[in-house]
Write a structure and sequence with these properties.
By secondary structure, this protein is of the alpha+beta class. The protein is built from 9 helices and 20 strands. Helix 1 links the parallel strand 1 and strand 2. Helix 4 packs across helix 7. The two termini are about 15 Å apart.
Amino acid sequence: MKHNLTAKIAIAGGGLMGRLLAWRLSRQDLEITLFEAGSLAVPAGACWAAAGMISPLSELVHSEQKIYQLGLRSLALWEPWAAELEALVGRPVSFRRAGSIVVAHGRDRAELPMFVRELQSKLPSDSAADVRPLDRAQLQKLEPALESFETGIFLRDEGDIDNRRLLPVLLESLRQQRVTLREHTAVTCERNTIVTEDAQYHFDCVIDCRGLGAKDAINGLRGVRGEVLVVQTNEVQLQRPVRLLHPRYQLYAVPRSDGSTVIGATEIESEDLSPISVRSTMELSSALYSLHPAFAEARIVESRVNCRPATMDNLPTVHCEPGLVRLNGLYRHGYLLAPALAEQVEKIIAQQLSEVA
């Protein structure tokens, strides 16, 4: 939809959600200004630390149907959006839709049928084929590196995206689309108004997606700490994301095209951003070693800590009023939900602009 060129939209928050919205809205002849409290080149939020999994099936076991439905819509959007961004900027974002695999060690093997039962109890009947039990031969064919496991589960309709490639590509697309970028500028958001330390700016609409920066505006918003390691080895080549079930946690291992693997599992009710703990490092490393012994010689090349913004029910919130949209609470589902939520906000903005035209 085309709009009057004088329509001005402010977006507060330069993480994944803010960048996606700025890119999508800039394609509609709107004048977009993106405000970010920190650096746009190296984001400090959860979007930079995440593993980039797009896993509606895996998350449904512990989440609401709303997360699953939004995740399916995001999967449908990521593929064309990734292709459009790659064509615009000329660099890959490494979107992959190869499914994911769930495994468990012999002593924890009972976790697998429990996982399947819980998942199938929540899935629509026409989606049962997306959950496929694997015997040893089938597992080895799909993922040869998992040679020590007897059985597994293949979740066909899942994907992932390399956030460390996507976010810079999104930033470059904003420059190409002539989006005004205001980094190192903390703001508060009001109807039609962005307030900085020394000025106020008027816009036709303000979109607030500041994550934890919006705690003053969203009741109950909290941070949930997550810890991630990145390891490098040439000895193990996973083909797709792998989840390891355990009675206390679920480890995920997400392979990247550069040979690295992103691993994580921790979820701590804390807004502490201090470096990763020794305990978490040991648990993540030992769980990774149990996937394949060759991971013992992998090099830890990076540790990441982030706090995900979450509401009290761990569901995203979209609050609308004339001249202001607040979008927050994506929790651990940022890459799973962002395109579907961006699509919703696009429609809200179109409606608001048509009402004041």
